Amino acid sequence: METSNNYDQEIKEPGNQGPESKTPLILLILIVVLVIINGILGYKLYVDSKERKKTNEANMLLKDEKVDLEVKLNSLIVEYDSLMTENDSINELLTSEQEKIRNLLKYRASDATKIKMYRSELETLREVMRSYIVQIDSLNTRNLELTAENVRVRTKLREAESDKDALSKRAEELTSQVQVASVLSAKNIVVYPLNKNSKPKDKINKIDKIKVCFTIRENNVAQPGTKDIYMRIIRPDDVVLASDMNDLFEYNGEQIIYTSVRELEYENSDIDMCIFWDKTEALIPGVYTTLLYSEGYEIGYTTFALK
Predict the structure, then answer these.
(1) Digit-coded pLDDT (tens) for 269-282
(2) CA atoms of 110 and 71, how far apart (whole Å)
(3) Helix (H, G, I), strand (E, B) or coil at 222
(4) Which end of the chain, N or C, is less packed with Cβ atoms under 10 Å?
């Protein structure tokens, strides 16, 4: 019995522990190491997760900013369109700036690089656009001034043309009045049907010639000088008495036949004269008309009757 007790005491003493007593200690150490490793890995995963989250958030912000800048650049293209004018030189410059923006938007690069480029170019492009706006405003102002000046000039031109037309019309009226005023006129027209002895007769079978006497009135407006006085005697049946069918003169733009003509030296004073027609055609009973003409105008008329 004593021997058994001694043996138990030996086992309980630390210095006398066997291999079985070391196994729990190793397991404990391994567990501690694993816990530490897991803790480190877990912490690392946590840190990495946070970093990824930050990176993702940063990338999203970059992407949003890139999209915003792209929208602004596309808006600039539209704004440049709205600045197009009738000035070809300005339009070429505006088109060139639009092409720069399109090429910038097509450029292949990372979001960060594009954002840097977009930021750099955006303000430059806006500044350029502002300078064009100033130029265009200046041109528009100048165009408005020129338009107003053009309107004033055209108005004055129309007024001048209107005045010219009025003066021309007035000159024509005065010329016409002078022409009318310068037309000769005949008064005291008397017709004498005569026989072969120059005695007045009113029977057609006795008449050998017709004598028409009258006075050309005084007219200080008429040009003095040689004048042709034409006479037409028209039968009751509207036949013009004539010595030759080729005896013609111009009246109202037409060539018409006359009965007889006489030359007159006119000196702007009353002058008496007579024109004769020797009978070359048959006469008929009725009322005859005698007409006198000078320089394309009718200057007097009268009627007479034959039996």
Answers:
(1) 999 999 999 998 89
(2) 17
(3) coil
(4) N
